[in-house]
Write a structure and sequence with these properties.
single chain; 125 residues; 7-stranded antiparallel beta sheet; 3 helices; globular; PPOX_F420-dep_Rv2061_put; oxidoreductase; Pyridox_Oxase_N; F420H2_bilvrd_red/Heme_oxyg; Pyridoxamine 5'-phosphate oxidase N-terminal domain-containing protein
Length: 125
């Protein structure tokens, strides 16, 4: 298994986005593999989504639940997905994380509806 695929197999991914002034902001997320991409799901109006909209350049690497890095990070490019692709990401997360994933995605759907969250795909730079 190559290093990129291993990131998708891991439990958490540290996604680093960049503020306007270049300051890095790292966030741990649940991750799933989707073909050649890594995907995660998040709240549509989160700051990381706003930063990705402005600058799709990110860095990704393995981490633990608290966001402590567990290996090297690598440059990548993120893109925000449309509603049908975001729904596919939700299903991938639910499948990978089992009952906890199902409860988390389902609870989010109840609170925010399907338009309150968005899928993000990450490709190697």
């Amino acid at each position: 298994m190559d290093a990129w695929t291993a990131l998708g197999e891991g439990k958490y991914l540290l996604v680093t986005t960049f503020k306007r002034d270049g300051t890095p902001v790292a966030t741990p997320v649940w991750v799933a593999g989707d073909g050649a991409d890594l995907v995660f799901w998040t709240v549509r109006d989160s700051w990381k989504v706003k930063r990705i909209r402005r600058d799709p350049r990110v860095e990704v690497g393995p981490c633990d639940l608290r966001g402590n890095p567990l290996g090297e990070s690598r440059p990548a490019t993120a893109r925000l997905l449309d509603n049908p692709d975001s729904e596919r990401v939700r299903r991938l997360i639910q499948r990978k994380y089992g009952i906890l994933g199902w409860l988390t995605v389902g609870g989010s759907r109840l609170r925010r509806g399907t338009k309150g969250t968005i899928g993000v795909a990450i490709s190697p730079a």
